[in-house]
Amino acid sequence: MLTELLQGVQLENLVDTTELSFNQWANQIGYIQHLEENEWKKYDIALLGVYDYRLSRNIKSDINGADKVRKQLYQLFNWDNRLKFLDLGNILPGHSVRDTFVAVERVVRELLLNNVIPIIISNSQELTYYQYQAYEVLEKDITAAVFDETIDFNYDPDDPYVQSYIYKMLAHRPHYLYNYLQLGYQHYLVNPDNVETLVQMHNECYRLAYFLTDIRRIEPMTRHANMVSFDISAIRYADAPGQQQASPNGFSGHDACRIARYAGISDKMSSYGLYEYYPSKDPNGLTAQLLAQCIWHFAEGFYARKFDDPEAFEQDYIRYNVTLNENGEELVFLKSRRSDRWWMKVPVVNDRLKKKYELVPCLKEEYNAACRREIPDRWMQAYIKHSTTGV
Length: 391
Hints:
This protein has 11 helices and 14 strands. The chain is α/β, with parallel strands linked by helices.
């Protein structure tokens, strides 16, 4: 099924593998055009390029950005002999934009069903909705983390040229979006009504400044997420010029690589999208290099996974009971003996949910706040969410 929707890369047009070291990625990964039928299922991670010029926001001459990223990625060195990375090539553009969207959903769904993590590179973040919709076949709730300098909360789900993926994700039925995380937006670029709407629906929104104070705060959020959608415009222009929205502020290139590694090391993470890359605005290939390094860091994170599961093996975790007041009310924290990562145990009081608590990933700073008799904000958000909704 995959091969009928894909076009393998023409490797000879990107790099000369004979001039590269055996340890460079071009000689370390698999290519869909070289595999037997269904052999792709043996891989852990698969790179998928999606380019449809009709999504390029009036940049009709833009070229396939995934191939520019590949050229940089293939030259990086592999340090892990467990690497099982497959280049699927590119989705063939459909007769209509919707045909392209449907093809993306079909390929991502097939990868998810076979426990292969797709890494998607595209010129449009609208693919986020189809990345999300592919999870429907799994029939379980998911958490989506979206990085963007703005919030694309438009209200025209019928126009494929309008960024309305957030609206479509929230309105999709059956509803299996457990939590939506809007990360790294910049206050002055966002309508406050959009933030208020998302928060009222018990989703989480965090501005850029919150993470620049301590970039480690992103780790628990990616640990909680099943999918990441990363708009290149979340990175400052100086570090990633190949974007439509040029802005002096944003995450640094170093931050973007750390975020990619956080996503890779998350035991729940099963798809990762890099969107809104415009190679025509990237003549020196700086953005392509950065995206290649993000993919490299994602793979490094994947092979460093700790497979923490505090719900199944709570005996392997250190339990901390923190007394908040004279009435004996407590907050419960768990710390992994394996990875030193932390979770908060949040009671669930909604009768429609068939569980007594939720484990919310956190940092030690939330535990320290509780020790000061302060209720952590994310604990309170989760508690309110499960007290008032059936999510």
